[in-house]
Each structure stands twice: as C-alpha cells, then as structure tokens.
Amino acid sequence: MGERKRVVYWIRRLSEIAMLGWLALLMPLDLVLAATVGGLQWLVPICGACGFTAVLLRRRYRLEGFSIVLALSFGVSTLFTSTGVDGAPGLVETGALLVLLIGVLRHVEPVRRAAVLACVTLAVFMFEASAREFQNAGLGYAFLLFAGWSMAVGIGGYLRFQQERRTEAVHSVRRAERLELARELHDLVAHYITGIVVQAQAARTVAETKPEAVAPALDAIATAGSEALTSMRRMVTVLRTEDGADRRPGVTLADLRMLADRFSAEGPKVAFEIGQGLDDRTLPPEVMTTLHRVLQEALTNIRKHAARSAWVEADLRRHEQVAALRVRNFGSGADPRVSRLGGGFGLVGMAERVEALGGRLYAGPAPDGAWEVVAEFPLP
Fold this sequence. Notes:
This protein is an alpha+beta fold. It contains twelve helices and five strands.
C-alpha cells in the first residue's frame, strides 16, 4: 500500500511537470508569431505569461486566476476588433485557459457556477476566433478552440463526477453508521444501569444489618452513574459504528487477542503484545470497543490489500496517559486481483471515531518501509 501511494504521488508530480513543460514549449511559438505579425500581437504572449502564472498558482488562487486570464483574453480580443488589426489566438493563453477550466469544473461550488463559467469560456473562445482571424482563418480557429473546449469540459466533468461519487459514498457510509448508533448506545446504557441496579439492591439488602456498608455502595453507585454519563456523552459525540464489528460494551483485551488469533489462522501470522499498565479496568468501555474496531479494520485491510505480507506486528501500549494501538505489516505485496476491487471507507470512520474520543489515527507508510496504523487514546 505504501508503494502504491508513492507511485501515485510521482505520477501526479510528473503529470504536473509535463503540463508546465508543454505550456513552456508553446511560449516560443507565441513569441515568433508576435515578431512576425507585430503590433497588438505582442499582447498575446503577455496574456500567455499571465495564464502560465495562473496555472502555477491555481491551487491557491483557482477562481481568481481563471477569471483574470479570461478577462485578459477577452480584453485583447476586443482591442483587435476595435482597431481592425489582424491577429492570431495565443497557444499558451488557450492552453492555460483549458487547464484552468478543467480545475474550475472539478472544484468550483456549486456546480451551476462552474457550468456558467464553462459557457462563458466558450463564448470568449468564439469571440477570440472571430476577432483574431489571421489570414482569414477564423473558422479554423473556431473549430480548434471548440474542440479544445469540448475536451476540457469532458475531462473536468468526468473528474467532477468521480469526486462527487466518492463524496456521496463517504456520506452514505456515515449515514448508515449513525443509524446503528442506537444499538450500541442501548447496550452501553444497559451495561451501566444493570450495575447501578445491582448495587442499589445490594445496598438495600444490607442496610438493616450492616448500615456501614451502605455508604461505600452509594459511592459506587455515584461513580458508576458518572462514568455512564461520561461514556454516553462520548458515544453520542462519536455517532458512528462499523459494519460487522462487535457491538458489545463488554469488549475486553481477551477479545483483541482472539481477533488476532482468528486472523492468524486465516492469513499472515499476527504477533500481538499488550504492554504493562493496561488491563480491562484502565480502559473505558467506549475506548475498548473502538480499539477492537480499529484492530479489526487494520487486519481486514491487510487481508484485502496485502494478503502476501510475511507477518503482522500489533501491540497495545501505555505511554503515560495515552494508550496506543499500532498495527504494522511487512512485505506487503498486494494481490493485483484484489487491489483492482478498490478501497473501502473503513479508515474514514475509524479516524472520526478515534478523534471524537480525543485521540488521533494515522495510517500510512513507516520510515522503515512497513505500512502501519496507529490509534492513540487519552486515558482518564
């Protein structure tokens, strides 16, 4: 998985370099054309230079840069029309507008605004073709500009569709998980309330024979009630739960070991270690449940994306007031038949759940080349 992320990173970097190099190679052609035609044609390379700068800064000033280049292109075309001087469309100017248009269609919200800007761009292109019809080639310029505009709109629209589909998938996962919260919240409340009722009944039983035992029982009831309120607040804040995960509030460290053992029987061997200072009493129930689900999600991802891993290292340790679960896999050669199925959204839910409990989740490559998932939780 770490290798795949590096490949994607370098593909993006090389694509960026190739695009900028392509625009830079067009600049000498604009300069040669300006030297040949002269006059107002020198404004075209200047407009192209502004477009190149806007492409460089598009991630920070996407809409502003696009609007400025579009206005400059329209202004230059207006000057050609008003003076009656022959001119030609700029290659860098046109290329920069097409690149910026793809980004606008992909990122600008709402989508109606992006569609309007795309239509305005087409109008500017057609006006540019009629205003700069060098050697009566306006019809040919119009055809080429329309073809380039259509290609940019198609690419931008497709990228927008993919982005919207992923966003909707993430929202669907979140809605489904929120619907399951009631089940887990019910179990959590029942767990605490049962303990409170038992302690209250015991206190009533011994009240007549051993009055001195009532005060400790009342203290225990008050403590259990406070813990129940705290856990319920944290659980309502989380508003999440994972599909297929254990919903029992009584998850224990033994359940974590059983989960690792089941995975070892069906996949790579798991070496699971629990450090000193951690037991079932030191970890709140909602933290234990989340630890179980993070471990389950991490092991599931290994089975799906890195089934050829040599072995898996998992450990749960305490560092002062923080409990940290770390899952690492080595030799993660992914099965291409499984990788083509794509990734899920389990880590999206896990990250929000861990952060809602005051912790943090990291999933990514480690300095030694392993892939690791680390979840940290503050302890009371």
